Amino acid sequence: MAIIEVRDLVKRYGDTTAVDGVSFSVEEGEIFGILGPNGAGKTTTVECIEGLRTRDGGSISVLGHDPADDSTELREVLGAQLQESQLPDKIKVREALELYSSFYRSPADWNRLLEILGLTEKRETQFRRLSGGQKQRLSIALALIGTPKIAVLDELTTGLDPAARRDTWSLIENVRDSGVTILLVTHFMEEAERLCDRLAVIDSGKVVAVDSPAGLVSTVDDEQRIRFRPSAPLDERLLLDLPDVCDVQRAGSHIVVTGNGNALNAVTSLLARKQIIAAELRVEQASLDDAFLALTGRKIDN
Ligand SMILES: Nc1ncnc2c1ncn2[C@@H]1O[C@H](COP(=O)(O)OP(=O)(O)OP(=O)(O)O)[C@@H](O)[C@H]1O
C-alpha cells in the first residue's frame, strides 16, 4: 500500500524551478531513498511532503492527508529529522526530548529511545557538548519521539566518520524493522545502496529513475572484470572458450577475464575442475555510481 503519493510536484523559487514534475510513491514499511547531487531538489521535495513548503503544482498525499491542508494531522504521523542548527547549544538532551514530547498526543517513551540510540549516558549533557554522531542520533530520536508512521531523514550521515555512519545505518534498519516507513534523502551512493529498498534518482528537479538499487545497477552494462593470480599455470584458451567470456589478458602474474552474465561462475568452475586456486581474486562490476552516471550523464559530487 502506498503511504506517500507524490504526483507531478512543482516548486519554484523565483525564476528557479527547483522541483519540476516529480512523481513517486512510497510503500508502507520500506526505506525509500531520494538520491541526487547537490541542488537537485531533494530537500525541497521532502519539505513539500512535510508541509514546510507550499508547492506550486501537483499533488501530495501522506497517509491520505494533503500536507498543504492538514499540517496538524500530518505532524502526528510524520516525524522529520531536525537540522542541527535548530537546537539551542545549551539545551540538555533530556530537556530537548521533554520539550519535543510535549508537542505530541502520544509521545514515545524517550528513555527507551535513548537506550536504543545509545544516548542514555548523555541525558544531562548539553547539545553543544555532544559529538557529531551523538547529535545525529539525538536528531533521529527527536524525529521518532511522536511515534510516527513515517520518518523523514535528510542527509542522515553527512559529517559522520565511517564507523558512526555504519552504526547509524544499522540503527535505521532497526527503526524500519519496528514498523516505521523511512523516507531518506541522500547524496551518498554507498548509503543508498546499503539502506534503500527503492530509490528515486533526482537530477535538476526531475526524477530520472525509480527502482531498487540492484534494479538501477542492472540497467547499465553487466560487464564484469575478474582478476586473479592462478596457483598453477593455466592455458588462457580454456578461459576464452568459456560461455559469456569475451576477453582474457595477462597482467604480470595475474589474469584478467572480461565477461558478462555467468562468466564468474564459469571461470570459478573451470578453476575448481583444474584444482587451481584463484589467489587475490577481485571482481569488478557496475555499481550504483555507474548507474547514476548512465542515467544523468555525470558523476555524483560527494
Ligand atoms: N529558499 C530558497 N530560495 C531560493 N532558492 C532555493 C531555496 N532553497 C533551495 N533553492 C534552490 O533550489 C534548488 C534545489 O535545492 P534543494 O535544497 O531542494 O536541493 P537538494 O537536492 O536538497 O540539494 P542539497 O543536497 O545541496 O541540499 C537549488 O538550485 C537551490 O539553490
The CATH class name of the largest domain reads Alpha Beta
Secondary-structure element series = EEEHEHEHHHEHEHEEHEHEEHEH
Find the count of extended strands (DSSP E, 2+ residues): 13
Number of helices: 11
In whole angstroms, the N-to-C terminal distance is: 33 Å
Computed structural class: alpha/beta
CATH superfamily of the largest domain: P-loop containing nucleotide triphosphate hydrolases
Subcellular location: Cell membrane
GO cellular component, one term: plasma membrane
Domain ABC transporter: 4-229
Organism: Herbihabitans rhizosphaerae
Q: What does it look like?
A:
With 302 residues, this protein is an alpha/beta fold. The chain folds into 2 domains: 217 residues, Rossmann fold (3-Layer(aba) Sandwich), CATH 3.40.50; 62 residues, Alpha-Beta Plaits (2-Layer Sandwich). The chain contains 11 helices and 13 strands. It has a 6-stranded mixed beta sheet with strand order 5-6-7-3-8-9, sandwiched between helices. The chain has a 4-stranded antiparallel beta sheet with strand order 11-12-10-13. The chain has a 3-stranded antiparallel beta sheet with strand order 2-1-4, covered by helices on one side. β8 and β9 form a beta hairpin. It is elongated, with a radius of gyration of 24 Å. The structure holds adenosine-5'-triphosphate. The site of adenosine-5'-triphosphate (ATP) has 12 residues, from β2 and α1.
